[in-house]
Amino acid sequence: MKNPYRTQNIAFFFLFLATLLIVVPVGLIIVIIIQKGLPAINWQFLSDIPRQGMRAGGIFPAIVGTVYLVTGAIILALPIGLLAAIYLSEYSKDNLLNRLIKLAIVNLAGVPSVVYGLFGLALFVVFFKFGASILSGSLTLGIMILPVIITTSREALESVPQSFREVSLSLGASKWQTIRHIVLPNAIPGILTGTILGLGRAAGETAPILFTVAAFYLPRLPNSIFDQAMALPYHLYVISTQVPNVAEKIRYGTAFVLLALVLIMNLVAIIIRYKFRKRKKW
Do 258 and 232 meet the contact criterion of CB atoms below 8 Å apart? Predict the structure, then answer.
């Protein structure tokens, strides 16, 4: 007779081992970045422009450019993604066409970022003549994270119990009133999870901004959405591969700032999600 506790302990061991295989390498990367990048962090590094061929000075234009691009991408992707998710989960019929659309959206989430970069170059930079600009970069990043937001938002909406909708409709509320006042408030934590995932991907991608917005070096901040901008991912790539004799602490310091920026953005979204999650009644 098999011992169920032995089987359970073996399963727990392999699950724990799999967790370690994921957590330990990521933890080591973070520790190395902090250890080698922290000495470079000071007020001048965070607030000054690059100097001496980007071998000295700061990374302030790259920080500002990254914030502009991520903000623009979320402003575009979140409303469109949420509306698409509402339609797919609440209004569309369960037929072959809609199943194909849902499958296509899931597949688009796995498309390499360089493909989105080429798409943004062809559509926004060349066809619409926006040029290499913050607008082109934000639109490209927004389209790139759109499948993630649609998928997670749809799953969050579908996780709301059907009984909530039935009670609302039985009390005389319309379909939209039910979605607006019952379904959406209960789905916000899941929607914000998708937003967090989108934030992380938009802030860390290099290929899309390489084709659509990123400048090798700019001594000033952008004045409009039609200007080019520096961005932390591309700046990190440049000082690591294109500019010789850059101090190691500057490279790791840039990586540390990018990591911290993504963490801060995610933390704000997580706090908002937590506040909405506390209001849930189920």
Answer: yes
Q: Which residues pair with 25 in a beta bridge?
A: none
pLDDT digits (tens, 9 = 90+) for 212-229: 998 888 888 899 999 999
Specify whether the CB–CB gap between 199 and 74 falls below 8 A.
yes
Sign of the CA dihedral with 197 first, then 200, 205, and 211 last: positive
Q: What is the pLDDT of residue 110?
A: 85
Q: How confident is the model at residue 153, as a pLDDT? A: 92
Pick the closest to residue 204 from 129, 119, 282, 266 (CA basis): 266
Pairing of strands 56-57, 50-51: antiparallel
Residue-wise pLDDT tens digits, 59-97: 999 999 999 999 999 999 999 999 999 999 999 888 888
Q: Has residue 176 been placed in a domain?
A: yes
210, 77 contact by CB (below 8 A): no
Indicate whether 190 belongs to any domain: yes
- Type of residue found at 251: R
150 part of a folded domain: yes
Distance CA 229, CA 30 (A): 27
Evaluate if residue 280 carries a pLDDT over 70. no
What would the two tokens of residue 74 be? 């979320």
User: What does the alpha-carbon distance between residue 177 and residue 185 come to, in Å, rounded to a whole number?
Assistant: 12
Number of domains observed in the structure of the chain: 1
Domain span including residue 204:
62-278
Per DSSP, the residues of 39-70 read GG-SHHHHHS-EETTTTEE--HHHHHHHHHHH
